[in-house]
Write a structure and sequence with these properties.
By secondary structure, this protein is mainly alpha-helical. It is built from 3 helices and no strands. It is elongated. One of its GO terms (cellular component) is TAT protein transport complex. Part of the twin-arginine translocation (Tat) system that transports large folded proteins containing a characteristic twin-arginine motif in their signal peptide across membranes. TatA could form the protein-conducting channel of the Tat system. Keywords: Cell membrane, Membrane, Protein transport, Translocation, Transmembrane, Transmembrane helix, Transport.
């Protein structure tokens, strides 16, 4: 217990660098982190408002594509019955 291990010296060096050398850098980093969180929350709220306007369709429903006026959706068995 009399001497410190290399891990203890490393932790002490990191603490000293933070206390004496990185004061402004840490506050700037935390400010950027807070701005990122605020931006994330804002974008999540925007996404929720967009999905609530599209709530007219049932979930999982895919609307069919636009079709030509003379187009009829018949199966091959229906076509075969009509031809016979």
């Amino acid at each position: 217990m009399g001497s410190m291990s290399p891990v203890h010296w490393l932790i002490l060096a990191v603490v000293l660098l933070v206390v004496f050398g990185g004061g402004g850098k840490i506050s700037g980093l935390m400010g950027d982190f807070a701005k990122g969180i605020k931006s994330f929350k804002k974008n999540m709220a925007d996404d929720e408002s967009m999905t609530s306007t599209d709530a007219t369709q049932a979930p999982g429903h895919i609307s069919p594509p636009n079709q030509n006026p003379g187009y009829s959706q018949t199966t091959s068995s229906e076509t075969h019955r009509n031809q016979v």
